[in-house]
Amino acid sequence: MRVLPVGDTALLVEVASGEEAEALHAELLRRRAEGSLAAREIVPAARTVLLDGVADPARLASELTAAEVPPAPPRAREVIELPVRYDGPDLADVAALWGVPEEEVARVHAGTEFRVAFCGFAPGFGYLTGLPARYDVPRRATPRTAVPAGSVALAGPYTGVYPRSSPGGWQLIGTTDAVLWDHARVPAALLSPGTRVRFVPVSAGNTPDRPGCGPGDAVDGAADASGGVAPAGRSGAA
Questions:
Q1: Contact 176, 124 (CB under 8 A)
Q2: Most buried residue, 11, 170, 172, 196, by CB count within 10 Å?
Q3: Rounded mean pLDDT of 113-136?
Q4: Which CATH number do you get for residue 57?
Q5: Helix, strand, coil % (nearest 5) of the chain?
Q6: Residues 202 and 122 in one domain
């Protein structure tokens, strides 16, 4: 663990892996909730956690460097389900990279439970982990100038959903009608760090391929919003 000062009231904590960042983030949230840590913002990224609004950064840096971080607690029970049509323009390319038929990409992706590791790139964009390492795919050699809102995409170890139209270089495998960011909603971000997510295949008529999940089911519950840009990490763009 390495702790770096950021301005007068912030610290950036660097760790070795996404799992360590997740565990550290959970531990810092726990300490703040019990009152033993004063920090206005605690923001995770791929391998860092930023603490802002710290009264005595030097003392806290010393404490963190000497601390043992326990493993992340068990995942919360709530799962947000996102209806998805596996119709993305890069689905065939991803299938070729995986060495499987296109329908197998949908089966594997929809059969995985994901977790939001951190948020960044754009408000409402979550970096979701869960796929085994053998399914990592590279970013496109040439990014698109405009990726449609609701595009479900893969890059490296992550899955993401573009909350609005923007340039992007991830591999697009599907689309969802779920609203990832709505400033009129509380919280505005549907996904936040630690949220569990499943993708539910739907047909072209927007009907779930299995009972018990409809498009409206995907937008009713979420944890605290955290839609700001991640301060550091391996995948700071989409």
A1: no
A2: 170
A3: 93
A4: 3.30.1360.40
A5: 20, 30, 50
A6: yes
